[in-house]
Specification:
Length: 116
Amino acid sequence: MARKNVLVMMALLFVAAAVMAGCATTQQVESLQAQVDQALQKAEQAQQEAQSARTAVQDCCTKSDENAQKAADAADRAEMAADRAEAAANTAQDAASDARDAAQKTQGIYDRITAK
């Protein structure tokens, strides 16, 4: 549950940072890209953990049906959280791309102004 909240909060922070950044510097864009990459990595790790949980459910034939159902439910929740985290990371990556484009456009304008 805490991991889900952390992933959702990270995604919201990424989107907020991208929206508020406006004309971001290259360093800011690179920093945001690093955060997006980290979020994508966490989403991938969550997907792997969800798959491991599913495998564990299938392999544990000796456990009770109740425990197996709890594990399956947890795997489903983990997979849904990973999907949401990946979607948030993709949104953040799109925002980072938009910020990078805005920074390049701003840099072009600045270069033209200073060249005169």
